[in-house]
Specification:
By secondary structure, the protein is of the alpha+beta class. The protein has five helices and nine strands, in the order E-H-E-E-H-E-E-E-E-E-H-E-H-H. The protein has helices spanning about 35, 55-60, 140-150, 165-170, 190-195, and strands at about 20, 40-45, 50-55, 65-70, 85-90, 95-105, 105-115, 120-130, 155-160. The strands form two sheets. The chain has a five-stranded mixed beta sheet. A four-stranded mixed beta sheet has the order 1-4-3-2. The radius of gyration is 18 Å and the shape is globular. The structure holds zinc ion (ZN) (2 copies).
């Protein structure tokens, strides 16, 4: 099985999944990778490392192989040929809203809004959007992890999360830091000022 994008029809379960490039003890399907076995490789269609769960592959399960996405923004890494990367679109005003995007071959396939304040050590995550044909493959989780990685130890909150089952399922699958306030954004005074709100 290949994780390659070539020939991967949207909506199918043929490989195209992604996770943050951090140590994972378990695969997408919950197998302990020390027991199931893990194969690390490299995808030459997008120049990104991959991992596979050997047991998932033996069982023919979906999402057995995933891209290991570097959580650094592409301009922060040594020069790379990677064509599946995280891009920062900084805010136009300090502590204003910026974006974190995932780009596949220079095309945006997902993104989220992000407010950060280094003075108050606070971060707010806005709506997470992933193109329909790339959903349920870990890309949204990569975006959230990339956002959270910008503010280790910050107090985090999110804007209102939809009550839909799919939105709640996504939210429930994230690795939120302790003390996160979901659906209750806590903007600091700098963010409010940048947002044009009364401070
Ligand atoms: Zn597995
Ligand atoms: Zn602030």
């Amino acid at each position: 099985m290949t994780a390659g994008l070539v020939g991967c029809s949207p909506g199918s379960d043929s490989g195209l999944s992604a996770r943050p490039a951090v140590h994972h003890g378990h695969c997408f399907n919950g197998h302990d990778l020390d027991i199931a076995g893990r194969t690390m490789s490299y995808d030459h269609s997008v120049y990104v490392p991959t991992s596979s769960c050997n047991l998932c592959q033996a069982l023919g399960l979906p999402r057995s192989t995933w891209f290991e996405i570097d959580l650094r923004f592409v301009h922060e890494t040594p020069p790379t040929d990677a064509e599946l990367v995280l891009i920062a679109r900084p805010p136009t005003a300090r502590a204003g809203v910026g974006q974190v995007d995932l780009q596949l071959r220079s095309q945006r396939i997902g993104g989220l809004d992000l407010w950060l304040c280094g003075i108050d050590r606070r971060g707010v995550i806005g709506p997470v959007g992933v193109d329909a044909s790339y959903r349920r493959r870990g890309f949204g989780t990569v975006l959230v992890a990339a956002a959270l990685a910008r503010g280790a130890g910050y107090r985090w909150s999110t804007t209102a999360i939809s009550e839909s089952a799919s939105a709640r399922a996504f939210c429930a699958a994230q690795y939120w830091p302790d003390g996160v306030h979901l659906s209750r954004p806590h903007y600091c005074s700098h963010m409010k000022f940048a947002n044009g709100d009364e401070v």
